[in-house]
Amino acid sequence: MKNIETAALVYKQLTDGKKPEDFSHEALIIKHMLTVGPITPMDAIKKFDCTRLSARIYDLENSHHITVAREKVTKGKKTYMRYWLEEDDNA
């Protein structure tokens, strides 16, 4: 199955029958990557109080088999990671 489709399916499974305020960090991260695009640790903290973005990304990749691309970003003396859903292969 294509990566974007897999992510959308996992999001549906994680949110089915739940109120938005009960969504897991994994679900919120998937939604952000599907609708907004790349996410950084600061985005995750500000938007949904998730202080362990890298751990949630690990869970998405290993438990749900979603491929997440990553990039190390350096601005001045600060370094952080940026994550986004890997693009689907051309069919």
Provide a descriptive summary of the structure in words.
With about 90 residues, this protein is an alpha+beta fold. The protein has four helices and two strands. Strands 1-2 form a two-stranded antiparallel sheet. Strand 1 and strand 2 form a beta hairpin. Helix 1 packs across helix 2. The longest helix has 13 residues. The radius of gyration is 13 Å and the shape is globular. The mean pLDDT is about 95.
Would you identify the regions where 5 or more consecutive residues have pLDDT less than 50?
A: none
| Integer-rounded radius of gyration | 13 Å
- Mean pLDDT, nearest integer? 94
Task: Tell me the strand percentage band.
Answer: 15-25%
Helix proportion range = 40-55%
Sheet of most strands: 2 strands, antiparallel
How many distinct helices?
A: 4
Give the strand line-up of the largest sheet.
1-2
Tag the structure with descriptive keywords.
alpha+beta, single chain, 2 strands, 47% helix, globular, 91 residues
Chain-wise SSE layout:
Elements: H1 3-15, H2 25-35, H3 41-48, H4 53-63, E1 68-75, E2 78-85
Antiparallel strand pairs: 1-2
Helix pairs in contact: 1-2
Summarize the structure.
The chain is of the alpha+beta class and 91 residues long.
